[in-house]
Design a protein that fits this description.
Layout (H helix, E strand, L loop, with lengths): L7 H24 L6 H14 L3 E2 L11 E5 L2 E3 L14 E10 L2 E10 L5 H18 L8 H14 L3 E2 L5 E3 L6 E5 L16 E4 L2 E3 L5 E3 L6 E3 L5 E3 L2 E4 L6 E2 L4
Antiparallel strand pairs: 1-4, 2-4, 3-12, 4-5, 6-10, 7-8, 7-9, 9-14, 10-13, 11-12, 14-15
Helix pairs in contact: 1-2, 3-4
This protein binds 2-amino-4-trifluoromethylsulfanyl-butyric acid (MF3) and cobalt (II) ion.
Length: 250
């Protein structure tokens, strides 16, 4: 399937989905504290999503058993919430969530510190967030997709961290995962040309150490091979005639 260009009608649904998702993330941030379990986060997240009239898009996606991916410390993404995993002071936790509003998806992730965290962990979270903004400096119609990828990689590596290579961002819309795949590393000047009406989930996953990953026995949880911490930041954006519009942040 080719990369879809969204109509105004589709875009307005994705705007609404994004607003709701942004709010879900803001509300979840408020409950992050030592002692809560990763399942508490999932339960709260699902409740917020459903109360807003949306469907949690991750629940049962290819068999994934929860609404919110909760990934702690060396877990990169796709951590499965459980009532046995309590957040502890000094942890970092990534929350990835997706909602469907009137048939249209929005997808976004944030990483938070739990209580007081190390300066290095703070820097990892901040560089990951900022790398998204470095990426979307290139999210203009007429540019190549990999201009976004390359600038994320350059910024992350300049700051001494690494980008995960085996997982990518993606187009998003009527489906959670649409074309194109959006790597967080690549040479500039390649990849499809960006056009107004494309909606993309840009999602740098950044490791404090090496970029290599493993997948745990549960077939979902992605962890760093070297045990270093990892952060994730993601928003759904719209390519326009001018500046990119971030749909999942207000
Ligand atoms: N948010 C993930 C992504 O960006 C999707 C998670 S899939 C799930 O692609 F199955 F884990 F929910
Ligand atoms: Co995504």
């Amino acid at each position: 399937m080719a990369i879809t260009i969204k109509s105004e009608r589709e875009i307005s649904r994705m705007r609404e989905a994004g607003k709701i998702l942004a709010d879900v993330h803001d509300r979840l941030e408020e409950i992050i504290a030592p002692g809560i379990t990763t399942l508490d986060i999932d339960r709260k997240g699902e409740e917020l999503i459903r109360k807003a009239g949306c469907i949690p898009s991750f629940l049962n996606y290819e068999g994934y058993p929860a609404s919110i991916c909760v990934s702690v410390n060396d877990e990169v993404v796709h951590g499965i919430p459980t009532d046995s995993r309590k957040l502890e002071e000094g942890d970092i936790v990534s929350l990835d969530a997706g909602v469907i509003y009137e048939g249209y998806h929005s997808d976004a992730a944030r990483t938070y510190g739990v209580g007081t965290i190390s300066d290095e962990a703070k820097r990892l979270i901040e560089i990951t967030r900022l790398s998204f903004y470095e990426g979307i400096k290139n999210a203009y119609a007429g540019n190549h997709l990999h201009d976004i990828s390359a600038s994320i990689q350059k910024f992350v590596e300049k700051n001494g961290f690494s980008v995960v290579r085996d997982l990518v961002g993606h187009g998003v819309g009527a489906q959670l995962h649409e074309e194109p795949q959006i790597p967080n590393y690549k040479p500039v000047g390649r990849g499809p040309k960006l056009r107004p009406g494309m909606t993309l989930a840009i999602e740098p996953m950044v490791n404090a150490g090496d970029w290599k990953i493993w997948i745990l026995e549960d077939d979902w949880t992605v962890v760093t091979r070297d045990g270093s911490k990892s952060a994730h930041y993601e928003n759904t954006i719209l390519i326009t005639e001018g500046e990119p519009e971030i749909l999942s942040l207000y």
